[in-house]
Amino acid sequence: CGLIVFTVIEGTFSRSDVYLELLMDDHVFPSYLSSKVRQRHHQFGETGDAFVRELDMSRITVRLVEKSDNNGKEKDHEDIIARLAGPTLPTLQQCLYKPTELSLKGSDGAVSKVTFKMRYLPVEMHLDPSE
After folding, report:
1. How far apart are CA 108 and CA 110, in angstroms?
2. How far apart are CA 114 and CA 99, in angstroms?
């Protein structure tokens, strides 16, 4: 178990008036939601964190969405503009302590890029086997 602490440095997006979300594993609610991105190139300078239950089994998803609030329901596919999903460990290793640009691909083929810097803080915790 542990905590991923990340800094969202900047991004270049295929469109404006969107939000950046970071989700862990199968959670419905994002661990991080940015302020509204009003321009195609945006300087964030925002820091967030996300709890990771099992680092080697965990999955991370970074996505751009049109709407920030969906009352706990799954996002509609038309709300998601671009996304990047994959295993957490390689993503963390790639972004560990250094700014790294991640590419989010949209269903229309448009690419948006976001620069992250991450670090990992291990947490000693005993999880119930049902989790």
Report:
1. 6
2. 10
Q: What are the residues whose beta carbons fall under 8 Å from the beta carbon of 47, sequence distance 6 or more? A: 5, 6, 7, 8
Q: Identify the pLDDT of residue 67.
A: 78
Looking at the chain, how many residues does it have?
A: 131
Residue 112 pLDDT grade (very low, low, confident, very high; cuts 50, 70, 90):
very high
Distances (CA, A) of 6 to 116, 119, 120: 7, 6, 9
123's CB contacts (< 8 A; 6+ apart) are 1, 2, 3, 51
Which residue shows structure tokens 């709407």?
Answer: 67
Query: DSSP assignment of 30-95, as one string?
Result: -SEEPPPB-SSEEEEEEEEEEEES-TTT-EEEEEEES-S--TTSPPPTTTEEEEEEEEHHHHHHHH
Q: Which residues contact 69 (CB under 8 A, 6 or more apart)?
A: none
| pLDDT surpasses 90 at 68 | no
Which residues are CB-contacts of 94 (< 8 A; sequence separation ≥ 6)?
100
CA distance 76 to 55: 28
